Amino acid sequence: MRLLHTSDWHLGRTLHGVDLLDHQASYLDHLVDVARTEQVDAVVVAGDVYDRAIPPVEAVTLLSDTLARLAEHTTVVVTSGNHDSATRLGFGSALMRERVRLRTRVASLAEPVEVAGVLVYGLPYLDPDVCRAELAPVGADGARTLLARSHEAVTRAAMTRVRADVAARPGGERPRVVVAAHAFVVGGRASESERDIRVGGVDHVPADVFAGTDYVALGHLHGPQVVNGPAGTVLRYSGSPLAYSFSEQHHAKSSVLVDLSGAEPTTTLVPAPVPRRMADVTGTLEDLLAAAGEPHVDDWVRVTITDAVRPADLFRRVKQRFAHALVVQHRPDRPDAGPTRPALVTAAADPVVVAADFVAHVTGGRPTAAELQVLRAAHEHVAAAERSA
Question: Which residue from 251, 255, 252, 244 is spatially nearest to 192, judged by alpha carbons?
Fold first, then answer.
């Protein structure tokens, strides 16, 4: 049995204001072609199909078309991520054709899609605040004991249900088990473009949660990577198909071809098409307008100008040289440049840390533990309201 693992399409996303839908469509054309030529038994999409809960119409149309094309060649298992609205993504799942299987509901996470004798379990993104009651075990008196408010607690509870379903299967030999999960597993390396998912200050799930499975198709982190896990289990992030921040410019974007026919799963990375390279370009304006900038005139670039004095008409002159410049900044390269500039705020930054830094900047003193608690409670209240929108 062979499957193709992908995730984090983020359909509808922009890059510093640049619409990426055409580039995303090119990747999905490539994915359909790989599924067809490699004759895979299943394509597994591990969450963050869309970039936001209410995606643009063009993104919905692209997904619909892609799923229909993939279903002509293979079975497709799609789970929801933290960027998706599980309800909207899963709408009509009961009406889908047999080869398109959406897994967006907690209630059905232990109902596998059986493909060529392999059980594929799709775990939707498990928000602790939303799932800790639904996944709580039922006691002898019929009452539920609320789970701890953590990603680890809800993911362990979900995997307990999965293992129970596997154990209940008839026959003496355990079937091969694949789990698709959207989570930040301990040992994974983040980039700047993943949305923060901290709850109670913690975002990680230990790898041993997935013990007893053969392959874990992970989503959420945008860099393709293997995560060390329990013996006999392969855990891998496929990564996003496109670079969504300059921190990803050196990623080798890919999908994962997984072969489960042998004693141990084997994986092969299938390179994704690169619509346009990303690069950092640093130097004086004169140098970059000359030979130093030549290799990057067709790239998406972040341009840092190091002249001691800000050059006149800087933005226009840079854009004339680099038509695809996304960021233009002036940072003089001199020892007396003044106080250290604050770090750039990215999607991966803990919002509470950012708010605490702002408090320190304005007041001259770090917030107290009680004030940090208020900041975190306020952030989580706003995040919960956004999820329910």
Answer: 244
Those residues whose C-beta lies under 8 Å from the C-beta of residue 149, and which sit 6 or more positions away, are 128, 129, 132, 199, 200
> Domain residue spans in the chain?
2-271, 278-330, 351-387
Q: Are 219 and 238 in contact (CB under 8 A)?
A: yes
Q: Residue for token digits 């004798």?
A: 117
List the structure tokens of 35: 């599924």
Angle between helix 351-363 and 369-387 (nearest 10): 130
Q: What percentage of the chain reaches a pLDDT higher than 90?
A: 69
- Which amino acid, residue 192? E
Helix intervals (H) in the chain:
21-37, 57-71, 86-89, 128-131, 151-167, 285-289, 314-321, 351-363, 369-387
| DSSP at 234 | E
Residue 155 CB partners (closer than 8 Å, separation 6+):
123, 126, 181, 183, 205, 209
CA distance 178 to 260: 9
Region at 239 (left for phi over 0; alpha for psi -120 to 50; beta for the rest) = left
Report how far residue 145's alpha carbon sits from residue 152's, in angstroms, rounded to the nearest whole number: 16
Distance between CA atoms of 174 and 168, rounded to whole angstroms?
10
Round to whole Å and give the CA distance between 205 and 18.
Answer: 33
Per-residue 3-state assignment (H helix, E strand, C coil) for 231-267: CCCEEEECCCCCCCCHHHCCCCCEEEEEECCCCCCEE
* More confident of the two residues 338 and 317: 317
Q: Would you call 100 helix, strand, or coil by DSSP?
A: strand
Q: What values do phi and psi take at 61, rounded to 5?
A: -65, -40
CATH class as words, domain 2-271: alpha beta
pLDDT, one tens digit per residue, over 87-115 is: 788 776 665 668 899 999 999 999 999 99
39: left (phi over 0), alpha (psi -120 to 50) or beta: left
Instruction: List the structure tokens of 316.
Output: 């226009």
State the Cα–Cα distance between residues 85 and 199, nearest whole angstrom. Answer: 18
Please give the distance of CA 43 from its chain centroid, rounded to a whole number: 17
